[in-house]
Each structure stands twice: as C-alpha cells, then as structure tokens.
Design a protein that fits this description.
With about 425 residues, the protein is an alpha/beta fold. Helix content is about 40%, strand content about 25%. A 6-stranded mixed sheet has the order 2-1-3-8-7-6, sandwiched between helices. It has a 5-stranded mixed sheet with strand order 14-13-15-16-17, with helices on both faces. A 4-stranded antiparallel sheet has the order 10-11-9-12.
Length: about 425
C-alpha cells in the first residue's frame, strides 16, 4: 500500500469565526482531496491575526504533507495572508510582472481604472510559485518548505474552486502517488444510531482494517459511511460491495438508498416507475414537505401540490375535515391526520397523499398533547395509514423530523402497495 498523504485545510477570516458567513470551502476541498487519494486530517479556522495564522501553519506542518489555506488575499488592510506568508517563510513582497499583467487585463476588460490597492494584488512573496487566477484579482500561491506543500487560495468559492480544479489538484496528483480512498454510503431511516450500532456490531467488528465505518445521523436518518483505502480501484469496489451484501440482511427494512440518494429523490423514482402522483396536506410543517419533494428536478411529473391547512377553517373548507372530528379529537389527532390525507387526495386528485398535524413548539402543548406530539398519515386508493410521532421541543427540529418521517411513511406505503399487487 502507498504511504498515506495527509492534508490540513486552514480558513482565514474573522467573518467565519463570527458566524457571519458559512465556510463551504472546507467541505468542497476535503471532498476533492479525497477523490485524488489525499486524506484530510484536520480543518482549522483562524481570525485575521498574524500570530494566530503563523501558529496554525506551524502546527499543521507537524502533521500534514499538504496545507491548503483559503482567504485573506484581498486588497484591503485586513487581508494579511501574503504578509503572513512572507514572515513565515522569511521572504518579502515584490510585484510579480505576470500577476500584474493579469490584474491589468482584468480591469481593462471591465473598463475600470486600477488603484494602487489593485496593483498591490500583484505583489507576491518572492519565494512562492505564482498560480494565475483567471476569475479574479487575488492570486494563488504555492510554497514548499521541509517537504511540506503550502497552497494559498482566495476565499471566494468560485475563484478557489477554479484554481483548485485547473491548477492545484493536477499538480498534487503529479507530485504524489497516493492511495485510493473509496467511500460507500448506506442510507437508513427509522432506526436510531445506538440501536443501529447494536444491530450491526458483529459485522462492524469483522471489517478488515483498511475499511472504516462512520455513523452520520441527521434528522431521523443515519448514514453509514464505509471508507476503504488501497491502491487498486477494482479490488476496493469489490470489497465494498461484499461488505454491503453482508450488511443488508441485518438492516434491509431501514435502508432507503445509497451514496447521493436523498429520501425525496428515492420517492420520486418510485412514483415515476409506477406512473403515480402525490399530494400533501400540511399543518405543523407549513409547506416544508412540499419544499422537500419539489427540490428534485422533474418533480412536476408526479407532485401535484400541497394544501398548507394551518387553520381549522382551511382543514374543514378545503380538505373536508369534519367539524365534529376537530371538536371531538382536536386538530392534532389521528382522526384529523387521516381526514386531511384523504381530503388532499380527493382535492388534488392524486394516487397518494400525505398529511402532517402536530405541535411543533416551543409552546402550545398540553399535558395530554405535549410539544412534539405529531400525527402523520398517508392515503392510498384503498387505505389510509397513520403514525404517531413523539418528538422534541425544538420547532425547527420537529418540522424537519416530521418531514423525514412522513416521507418515509410514503415510501414504505408505496412499496407495500406494490408488493400487494404481485
């Protein structure tokens, strides 16, 4: 097996630490490095202080072969990355003529006058390799010291991605003979992480040492990520398939997809295969279920619409929920969820319809129906299936969990209906 090539990603900027922007760069860079066999071992975010950046670089150099730095390359005083690299590498800034020509061309094409600050964008540490940025004015820089490669990139995501794709990743591939890092993701729903771990414990303990398992829970779902490392793609693919084949009999009832599958995309395929349609009646989820279903391109082939029946008046006047049902059982009840789903199916003229009604929180609960009490339903041409959920006290979490559970109820109902026809 080839030696493991390790990478660390450092993002620079107070705006990241203050929570004013979301760091999407690290996620993207990590995935791309993995694709060429370089293993990210740590990510670090630091503010706009030179001593903190130098400290992060020094620490990273002790554990990584490649250090990718993003941010802090603009023309303003708070962008200090180039000055910091000069201090770290014992260098000085000097106008790079190639960089200056590119910056000049950039402004000329846009009919804009260059300022002295713009010109200083072309000032680079004298001991770096200049990486042209064809999509902006902040240059890329490549350094090498004590067998460690340092790459500095702009923080603007589309500029960073372009530099990585066209310059940095190809250079790293040429430099290192790295192992292949292959992932396989099994997506489950309806089983908690701890119960899942207990169910597959023997299988997990028997995994070969070069295949690792990670549990990734998210709103009622748990992704099982298998990561295999080696130097033969065909063998790794075969080994991962073998392990999945051994795993499935243990958790088949909870598996809904693999790799990039999302619950709503799996449902879309099931509906298209059966030439079926779906509609929704939403109360506590307020349209979130419809948003999930319509996130999928081509969903107009099977999604007819949603009635957001937040008030009892809409439940009665649009969906046909009985006034007596609401008086006897309340809006949050199995009976109301059933009538909402059946009403939506009639109003929207669909094969299936799903409904949600509950107390999302943080208030509105009672001793009999505390916050997090939710009823969901799925109506078919022949029956209506209901389910009680007992969720949490956090509104956003309850909305997303309810969406996941009602979509899974739909998925299972579609599969059950299909099985009954066989």
């Amino acid at each position: 097996m080839n030696p493991i090539i390790r990478a660390e990603i450092i993002t620079i900027g107070d705006e990241i630490l203050f929570g004013q922007i979301t760091d999407t760069n690290t996620q993207w860079i990590g995935a791309e490095l993995t694709n060429i066999g370089i293993r990210p071992v740590r990510k670090t975010s630091v503010g706009d202080l030179q001593e903190d950046i130098i400290s992060a670089l020094t620490e990273a150099s002790q554990r990584a072969d490649v250090i990718i730095v993003t941010g802090g390359l603009g023309p303003t005083k708070d962008d200090i990355t180039k000055h910091t690299f000069c201090k770290y590498f014992g260098s000085e800034l000097k106008i790079n003529e190639d960089a200056l020509a590119l910056v000049t061309e950039f402004f000329a094409k846009r009919g804009r006058e260059m300022t002295e600050l713009n010109i200083q964008q072309a000032a680079l540490p004298t001991n770096c390799t200049y990486i042209p940025n064809l999509w902006g004015t902040a240059p890329g820089m490549w350094f090498e010291k004590d067998k460690v490669i340092y790459v500095s990139l702009p923080g603007v995501p589309y500029e960073m991605k372009s530099l990585m794709e066209h310059a940095i990743l190809p250079r790293l591939k040429d430099r290192f003979v790295a192992n292949i890092i292959q992932h396989k993701i099994i997506r489950t729903i309806g089983i908690g992480e701890s119960f899942l771990a207990e169910t597959i414990e023997d299988w997990e303990n028997a995994l070969p040492t070069h295949i690792k398992l990670a549990y990734l829970p998210h709103f009622g779902q748990v992704k099982l990520r298998l990561t295999a490392t080696g130097n033969n793609q065909e063998i790794l693919d075969s080994e991962l398939k073998h392990q999945v084949d051994k795993l499935l009999p243990l958790i088949q009832d909870f598996v809904f997809g693999y790799d990039a599958d999302e619950l709503e995309s799996v449902i879309g395929r099931l509906l298209i295969e059966r030439d079926a349609t779906i509609g929704a009646a939403e109360s506590c989820t307020g349209g979130f279920v419809a948003s999930q279903l319509t996130n999928i391109p081509g969903s107009s082939r099977y999604f007819e619409g949603s009635v957001v029946s937040y008030s009892n008046t809409i439940k009665m006047n649009v969906l046909g929920v009985s006034k007596q049902t609401l008086e006897d059982f309340g809006a949050v009840s199995e009976q109301t969820a059933r009538e909402m789903a059946e009403g939506a199916r009639k109003v929207l003229n669909t094969t299936y319809a799903i409904s949600t009604t509950g107390i999302a929180g943080p208030d509105g609960g009672t001793p009999e129906k505390p916050v997090g009490t939710v009823w969901i339903a799925c109506a078919t041409p022949t029956e209506t299936v209901t389910q009680l959920l007992t969720l949490r006290s956090i509104r956003k979490v309850n909305i997303e969990l309810t969406s996941s559970y009602v979509l899974n109820l739909l998925r299972k109902t579609i599969l059950k209906t299909a099985a009954e026809k066989i």
